Amino acid sequence: MGAYNGWERANWFAHAEDDLSHEATQTWDRNGPWAQRVRQECEAVRDDVGVLDLPGFSRFNLSGEGTAEWLRGQITGALPKIGRMNLAYFADQRGRILTEMSLLRHDEDHFTLITAAAAQWHDFDVLRPAGQAGLRLIDHTGDYSTLIVTGPQSRDLFQSLDTQADLYAPWLSHQMARVAGVDCALARVSFAGELGWEIHAANKDIPILYAAVIGAGAKPFGMWALNALRMEKGYRAWKGDLSTDYTVLQGGLDRFVKLDKPQEFPGKAALLREQQTGPTKRFVTLVIDAGDQDAPYMSTVSYKGDVVGETTSGDWGYRVNKSIAFAMVRADLAQAGTELEVDIFGVPRHATVQPDAPLWDPENKRLRA
User: Fold this and answer.
1) All domains of the chain, ordered by start, with CATH?
2) Of 62, 65, 220, 270, which has the highest C-beta tally within 10 A?
3) pTM
């Protein structure tokens, strides 16, 4: 188990015959006792359907006349349409990444904002000025929980549970639903990068839903599998890949920035200046000849003996069978095919910058199926 802002989540699912001794688990090598199980969990998501019990998502309800306009003045990009959802980025006055939230729009001025478990107090403070503007801000983090149900057979699984919902609603839509006799909300999104949905429901109903999904054939998977899966899709994580160490443009989030909108959101002036001069750093995906260990957070990235950046995430991609790292590097070295070195526990390892697209399902055909 792992602790995420005090919420327990499974990291991986051991079998009875696995060696969980101190000696076996105290290693930086990829092939600890978890490796076989994490691979199986990833393969279940790739080939069939998996379920991840994900308590602790920080979630806030924001409503009241003027909510939409207030949000437009806070985020770098655009708002979703009613019944849709998208990612939104909040910048500080330097244009650096303050936080990332998922925005679900229920009505003209009614939104749910979902963010990382560890960001609960941080992001509530980001939104607190909304209350001072006369809007209604409620922290529902302790009231609801989430199941990620994902994989190419996930639609069939929901159909087998007599789900009352439109299971062909498009990607990035959300709706009220009834699954296994339980009222809930379904969001057509998957951080694992496969066909899938998030089930959002009251905490008391999650055990019923989880039992029903497992009973219908889903394989449980944990946070370590999810981390590998999200990296194959190029999905960033807060406080690692997304932090005030980097600007929104350095983070490669240009498509989430609307510098031509009339609202003067925090960091707009700084981002306009950066757009004119060009970012000095760029976010890239690397494939590494990594040996037995994958790149840890903040591994040094070098080019011809000079330090040119650092990694922000690293893991083994079980669908692509490669060691992957995200890194922030000098902007002139961000072109696909550039050869770099990553220091992994004191050993320089060859790395290659990848094209600006997911390593797995680059056209998102599986995600949108």
Assistant:
1) 2-56+143-231 (3.30.1360.120), 234-353 (2.40.30.110)
2) 62
3) 0.96
